[in-house]
Amino acid sequence: MNADIRTRLEKGIVDAPGPEDREFSFSGEDYAFLRAMLKERTGIELGPTKHNMVYARLAKRLRRLGMQSFRQYIEFIGSDAGREELGATLNALTTNLTKFFRENHHFEHLAGQALQEIRARAATGGRRLRIWSAGCSSGEEPYSIAITLLRAMPDIKQWDARILATDIDTEMVRRGAEGVYNASALEGIPHEIASKYFEPHGPDKVRLCAEARALISFKYLNLIEPWPMKGPFDVIFCRNVVIYFDKDTQRTLFDRYANLLAPGGFLYIGHSENLFGITERFKLLGRNIHRKIA
Ligand SMILES: C[S@@+](CC[C@H](N)C(=O)[O-])C[C@H]1O[C@@H](n2cnc3c(N)ncnc32)[C@H](O)[C@@H]1O
């Protein structure tokens, strides 16, 4: 199969072959099981019609393991021997689409109003800065934060500044920590940023500069489980993550973010997300930019 079609299938953009042409048998019951398991373990709700996407994303796992059917695969991931494979199942079912400086107005706000207020507070409270990229995928978001800080804070070495970047997908966390990307990921990024903060890494790859990498800790974290961090965070980015969660899961999550944010701290959410009917602990300041008020 051509690589482009395979990618489009995995993203759910085009339909996989109908049941009659499938390499592995995949029943409605199998889909219902995987859908419920994903919801329980990650909070992600797939909706009733994503059979083809699930089939396309998991078929390669079955192929790799030499399995004959989804039933056999489901039995395997439920067994002790299949515990590691269960992690691969969850990794395959998360949607990781991201890019550098996605929704750039958030980074402009961070460099402007947010840092201005954080600096004003630091005059009495000490030069501590904590930012969390929750659902960081392969790292483009936390690296965009790091570059924003490096550009906006010439005195950053005099600060205790840290970025925490977390995701449930262990492969994404690994890739983020590595900080290596296809050179094509820099398309659309101003030359001045690309040349200063990225280094060539082999023929078609680039790597984030050491200064940006040193600001970030990449960790596995499931947002619907207990968190080890105590905070407070000055800023939380949780963008394009909760679109897959139901309202109750969102309510609990945003309440926990409010608990962990410093008074007046900022929360950035994705362009198609909102907090209406979810929480009143934030005030909307601008395009999906919120301030903690309670
Ligand atoms: C579409 S990406 C968004 C990446 C980035 N925040 C952005 O906006 O470009 C969503 C990320 O949320 C992660 N995710 C989904 N459910 C999660 C959970 N329960 N805990 C932690 N991360 C989760 C996925 O693995 C995925 O990498």
Task: Characterize this entry briefly.
This protein has helices spanning 3-10, 28-42, 51-65, 70-77, 83-93, 105-125, 140-152, 170-178, 191-197, 210-214, 247-260, and strands at residues 128-134, 160-167, 180-182, 198-200, 205-208, 216-220, 233-238, 261-269, 282-286, 289-292. With 294 residues, it is an alpha/beta fold. The protein has a seven-stranded mixed beta sheet.
- Report strand order across the widest sheet: 6-2-1-7-8-10-9
What's the CATH class label of the largest domain?
Alpha Beta
Count of spatially separate domains? 2
Q: State which percent range the strand residues make up.
A: 15-25%
CATH-assigned homologous superfamily of the largest domain: Vaccinia Virus protein VP39
Flag low-confidence runs: none
Summed over residues and divided by their number, the pLDDT gives a mean of: 94
By DSSP, the count of extended strands is 10
CATH arch. level architecture of the largest domain: 3-Layer(aba) Sandwich
Order of helices and strands: HHHHHHEHEHEHEEHEEHEEE
- Overall structural class, as computed from helix and strand content, comes to alpha/beta
- Major sheet: size, sense and barrel closure? 7 strands, mixed
Fill in the CATH topology of the largest domain. Answer: Rossmann fold
Tertiary shape: globular
Helix content: 40-55%
Bound molecules: S-adenosylmethionine
Rg of Cα set: 21 Å
